[in-house]
Write a structure and sequence with these properties.
- The chain has helices at 12-15, 18-39, 55-61, 63-73, 83-86, 91-94, 112-117, 119-126, 219-233, 236-260, and strands at 47-48, 99-106, 109-110, 131-139, 144-148, 155-163, 171-175, 178-181, 187-190, 196-200, 206-214.
- By secondary structure, it is of the alpha+beta class.
- The longest helix is centred in the C-terminal third of the chain and has 25 residues, at 236-260.
- The termini are close together.
Length: 261
């Protein structure tokens, strides 16, 4: 693989305006999560049956096609940004650079260049109702994602196993007190507002398709959830990430040009 210039992501914007937003978000998160739980049309447990979402069957049937596109993306693995470079807010849990993310959709914003690089996957995820985000999540050997929780109970996280270590039981996600692991072609669906952590204790890379969708809720819950997500989409949390992705796009384009030369 040819050498390329890795973008230098500025974190200056990350500090501006964040303290008030973070304090407000943390103050409201408990109340919003209680509304989401009370209004939820699906069980509120940590682990959710994949069959709860009918669209999961179609993607699972096409998992090999999705995995082939993910493998093609990995030809330029160093041009796929570490999550902490995309989003400075994730520095605590992704600070070692061993968690990389190739975004197709992030908080409703499609990344056209990346969708063109994985066209079959992009077309499949476009069919998902109430889609919030979709990306290839790449975890390097030995990577650790410390215990944390997501921003809202109003989103459900779905992992489709694509490239999994030979000993999957040594690449573990602990959700609350339950240890889970990924399998190729199978879904792991959970509420990431619950505490969870990840340990890849293998010498192999783990790649999944990570999908986030809105939790099915009754009217009041949908209204509150849509308002919360609207605010998140317009916050520095998302807008800084969009700018940083733009800088990494140039690195990936350069890697493709070097390969073709």
């Amino acid at each position: 693989m040819s050498t390329k210039k890795v973008p230098q992501i500025s974190t200056a914007a990350a500090g501006s305006g964040r303290p008030l937003i973070i304090r407000l978000g943390k103050r409201l998160r408990g109340s919003m999560n209680r509304i989401s739980a009370a209004q939820s049309k699906i069980p509120n447990g940590s682990i959710i049956e994949a069959s709860t979402f009918p669209w999961t069957d179609h993607l699972a049937e096409n998992w090999q096609t999705i995995a082939q596109e993910a493998a093609a993306i990995l030809r330029h693995r160093d041009a796929v940004p570490p999550l902490n470079d995309i989003s400075p807010d994730h520095a605590r849990i992704a600070g070692d650079g061993n968690w990389r993310s190739f975004f197709l959709v992030g908080y409703g914003y499609e990344v056209p260049e990346n969708c063109a690089r994985a066209p079959a996957t992009a077309e499949l995820v476009r069919q998902i109702p109430d889609l919030n985000s979709a990306f290839f999540s790449i975890l390097e050997p030995g990577a650790v994602i410390p215990r944390h929780r997501g921003v809202t109970h109003g989103l459900v996280t779905c992992h489709l196993g694509l490239i999994i270590p030979d000993r999957p039981e040594d690449c573990v996600i602990q959700i609350e007190d339950t240890d889970c692991f990924w399998e190729t072609g199978k879904w792991l669906v959970f509420d990431d507002s619950q505490y969870h952590e990840v340990h890849n204790r293998t010498d192999q890379r783990r790649v999944i398709l990570l999908i986030q969708v809105k939790r099915p809720m009754r009217f009041l819950g949908r209204l509150a959830n849509d308002l919360a997500i609207w605010g998140i989409r317009r916050s520095p949390f998302v807008q800084d990430a969009r700018r940083n992705l733009g800088q990494w796009e140039e690195a990936y384009r350069q890697a493709e040009q070097n390969e073709a030369a």
